[in-house]
Design goal:
29 helices; alpha/beta; 18 strands; about 800 residues; globular; about 40% helix; nine-stranded parallel β-sheet
Length: about 800
């Protein structure tokens, strides 16, 4: 049933502010011009959205100058880009009910038109092949959001064709397009979890999802544009955008203007995207899209966004996002005569334009011919150039070792790009099955189980030979040199680490089934017990609690949580409280550390996380935490005391920031000394430092590369063999593919799967990042290895 709407034109929205006094607007423009385009605050940006006429001209001039400065800084002065694409609508079914959408259809309408619930593979390939013949390099896969959640016919089609979900089908079609045509898929399937983003990254050089708006009002209030659409929850969509950043995926997003939002909500939406990009650096472009009313929709009587209002919004987006952001306006949603206004407003990208397929979301608005778009762009003083699905700077960084592209996909994408990162006009498309086909491991195209010969050749060959003969005989300088291994030397080092892993712990990739609880939330004991009981019902053997309970909970906050876990799940292993929290609890209780550790054990704590080690160097620890961390010596003292009290722990190292290879070796040596004294470490967990998760800015910090991660995991395995025999690949930090690479070079464990559950899925500090047993099995199977569920201390489950 269609929900009746109270339709409003842009000039009569009930909550739209009246235009400011002209002097207020001009003062805002003065500040913008005097500041050289420095981004205004929220209030100033909202005022600037009202610019019209001569005031709009002033705003456009500033936005245009910012765009030009950004293009010059990016090394492409005067170049506006587009992507030559085909539009592949995999399904028109959706679980949402957006009141302006004409793309989505009901099963009845599709059946009446003789259309399958999903595009069949042959039809997908036919469109892709025709596009390749016309010079397209992108296949835009667009579809409704999880239609199987709403429509039984969608669930049946997926079951009949052997797909677990719509997103599973998306992945298969993207791989088919890559294998058979060479087109690069840009995936736009709506809301995705962290794990789903990870699963799709090997077949998607870029992905996207419009934020549209941060207005919860449009989602929660009956009669508004997103009412009845579960996937249009702004918080959910912002989480997807953040998870794409954590997954290092070049991501396209944007705002949809004119659907009932007010000016303040427009500003909030743009700032939310700016903030997400500041955290992760992954937003490759922001689309500022104008509403166009569609016939046969609930909003068919709403007025289209007025052109000057739209241009002002584009210009404000430019000044808020700055010169470095790529800003897109779809060229088919604005009349050709008015496209120059958008160029003046600061756009530098037209998005995907197809010489073959229509815009299935806006079918009434045909694409401009690419030749006409080039002419219109030139009339504005700019040159039109073709790009690929991922924007140029992500490709340039990928050439230098950044992990924006899956390493199996990287060669194909880079083969289609020039040195700058734009599309090569002489690039040849065609089938590309070699690095993605079955029968090959995901490592350098080698067949499963194969490794390069350990023959001691190469720059570091002699040193690697020394490690193979007698690791204890290699001094710190030697290990430092090995941490710099690259190319063939790195492959040989990783192969030796993998061989030692096999000899020490066997072939199985191990994992634990667990859930996290954030103690700092101060959940009541009854809720903690419920979460523990749910974890048991879901098959967990462990609950991991991290963070300090609220200060007002006193020392009992620690003990109550432990007791509640054991009450809710009597058989659960409780892995809880980091070294700094052990010290905090003892201080709250006014007890000697040894007595406090005894109290924790009696309350139910079984082992403790050895996190917070970072790098055991006080200068570095101060830089990473702003001087709030416990000293290195204190960390060692606390962990040693825990081991002595019978509480075993993990060991950790956080790398890839401001430390040197020598600092890494010293850290590993310290862990080895503690292990020699106590035998209390169950495993080592190397974790790359992530800028987006840092509590403070760290000047001069770098981000760890895949090369550095592989070298560190290999060296850690070899240095600590016989002391700490289990090395974990931290999938929440490395991503699925990164963790898999570590498993092929010395690591043997994937850690916990981090169940969210349904009672309170936000109770864990890493909520939304959950690994399935199927994911673990797949990652191991691609390496030709079995899997085994383990206990926290590496015992056998069941």
């Amino acid at each position: 049933m269609t929900v009746p709407l109270t339709l409003r034109t842009p000039s009569h929205r009930a909550d739209q502010p009246t235009a400011p006094d002209p002097q207020v607007l001009r003062a805002a423009l003065d500040r913008l011009e005097d500041g050289g385009g420095t981004a205004p605050d929220r209030a100033g940006a909202e005022v600037l959205l009202h610019a019209r006429g001569a005031d709009l001209d002033r705003l456009l001039a500033v936005a245009g100058r910012l765009r030009d400065a950004g293009l010059a800084e990016a090394g492409r002065p005067g170049v506006i880009t587009y992507s030559r694409k085909v539009f592949v609508p995999l399904t028109h079914l959706c679980q949402d009910r957006c009141h302006y959408c004409i793309f989505v259809q009901t099963p009845g309408k599709l059946a009446k038109a003789g259309i399958s619930p999903y595009m069949e593979a042959d039809a997908v390939l036919e469109v892709a092949r025709q596009g390749a013949e016309l010079g397209c390099k992108e296949a835009l896969l667009t579809l409704g959001d999880r239609p199987e959640n709403r429509w039984p016919v969608a669930r049946k089609w997926l079951d009949d064709h052997g797909y677990a979900s719509t997103l599973d089908y998306v992945g298969h079609m993207a791989r088919l397009i890559l294998d058979e045509t060479g087109l690069l898929p840009h995936l736009n399937p709506g809301v995705m979890s962290w794990a789903e983003l990870q699963r799709l990254k090997p077949v998607g050089p870029s992905m996207g999802m419009m934020l549209e708006t941060t207005s919860t009002r449009l989602w929660t209030e009956k009669g508004e544009a997103h009412f009845g659409s579960p996937d249009k929850d702004p918080a959910l969509r912002l989480r997807v955008i953040d998870d794409a950043g954590r997954s290092r995926i070049p991501f396209t997003t944007g705002v949809l203007l004119g659907i009932g939002e007010n000016y303040a909500e427009r500003v909030d939406s743009i700032l939310a995207l700016r903030d997400a990009h500041a955290r992760h650096g992954h937003v490759q472009e922001v689309i500022v899209q104008n509403f166009r009313a569609k016939s046969a929709t609930a909003m068919m009587g709403a007025a289209d966004l007025e052109t000057q209002e739209y241009a002002a919004a584009v210009a404000v987006a430019r000044v808020l996002l700055g010169p470095g952001m790529r800003l897109q306006a779809p060229p088919n949603l604005t009349d050709a005569a008015e496209l120059q206004l958008l160029v003046r407003a600061g756009i530098d990208d037209w998005g995907g334009v197809s010489p073959l397929t229509p815009d299935h979301v806006n079918p009434e608005r045909p694409w401009p011919h690419i030749e006409d778009l080039a002419r219109l762009t030139a009339e504005g003083g700019y040159t039109l150039r073709e790009r690929l699905t991922a924007h140029p700077h992500y490709l340039r960084e990928s050439r230098d070792g950044a992990d924006w592209l899956d390493d199996r996909l990287r060669p194909r994408v880079l083969a289609l790009s020039d040195d700058y990162g734009l599309a090569r006009h002489d690039a040849l498309l065609g089938p590309f099955p070699a690095s993605l086909s079955a029968g090959f491991s995901p490592l350098s195209g080698r067949k499963n189980g194969e490794h390069p010969a350990l023959n001691g050749e190469g720059r570091l060959g002699r040193l690697i030979g020394d490690v193979r003969a007698e690791p204890a005989g290699v001094d710190d300088a030697g290990w430092v040199e090995l941490l710099g291994a690259d190319g063939a030397d790195l492959e040989e080092l990783a192969a030796l680490a993998d061989q030692v892993r096999r000899e020490r712990v066997g072939e199985a990739v191990t994992y634990a089934v667990n859930r996290n609880i954030d103690a700092s939330l101060g959940l009541p004991p009854e809720r903690v017990a419920e979460l523990a009981a749910e974890a048991v019902a879901l098959g967990a053997t462990e609950v991991c609690a991290q963070g300090a309970p609220p200060v007002e909970a006193g020392p009992e906050g620690y003990l109550d949580l432990a007791r509640a876990v054991k009450r809710g799940g009597p058989g659960l292993h409780l892995h809880a409280f980091r070294p700094a929290e052990l010290a905090d609890g003892a201080a709250r209780a006014g007890l000697p550390l040894a007595d406090w550790l005894t109290a924790l054990r009696e309350a139910g704590v079984d082992t403790v996380p050895g996190t917070g080690a970072r790098i055991l160097d006080d200068r570095i620890r101060d830089l990473l935490t702003g001087g709030t961390d416990i000293p290195s010596e204190r960390w060692v003292e606390l962990v040693t005391a825990a081991h002595t009290a019978g509480l075993r722990s993990t060991a950790t190292i956080v790398y890839g920031h401001v430390e040197s290879a020598r600092d890494q070796v010293r850290h590993l040596r310290t862990l080895a000394r503690v292990q020699d004294a106590t035998g209390g470490f169950t495993e080592l967990i190397p974790m790359p430092w992530l800028p987006s998760e840092s509590p403070v800015p760290v000047p001069g910090a770098r981000a760890a590369t895949l090369r550095e991660s592989r070298a560190l995991h290999a060296v850690a395995r070899l240095m600590l063999a016989g002391r700490i025999d289990h090395v974990q690949a931290a999938w929440t930090k490395l991503g699925m593919r990164g963790a898999q690479r570590m498993l092929a070079g010395g690591a043997d464990d994937l850690g916990g799967v981090l169940l969210d559950g349904v009672i309170d899925p936000d109770a864990g500090p890493e909520q939304g990042r959950e690994l399935t047993v199927a994911d673990v099995t797949r990652l191991a199977a691609e390496l030709g290895r079995p899997v085994r569920q383990r206990t926290t201390t590496y015992g056998q489950v069941g």
